[in-house]
Amino acid sequence: MGFEYSEVVKLKEKMLEFRIAAGKAQDRVANRIAQLALRKVKLMTPVDTGNLRNTWKSDVVKKGDTYIIVIYNQTEYASFVEKGHRKVVAGKTVGWVEGKFMLKLTEEEMQRIAPNMWEKEIEKEMRRIFGN
Question: Name one Pfam family in it (predicted).
């Protein structure tokens, strides 16, 4: 049983091409997940004036081989809507307003669907480069 040296060279070239393509694919998927999360958290945000919903932002940070997707809102009352807050009348607590957990629920959903998105994108690149 033998092999052709030219086949090994072709395989090496395809592996290098895949390495570059996989990096680009990971960037695309990270940005796609960030956009999806942003859209989801905005839809789940309750609207009074629209200020809270319109001030959601996202960033994608790459540290080594790890992608960190940051979804944030700098509106001063965002954390109270997210986690809940007490009701105060005349200096006394009279109740509790439950949080909406729009960010927490969005994060949980993204953690559930993200691995499948990564896998599909990488498989697509593998099929493109290696065939089948």
Answer: HK97-gp10_like
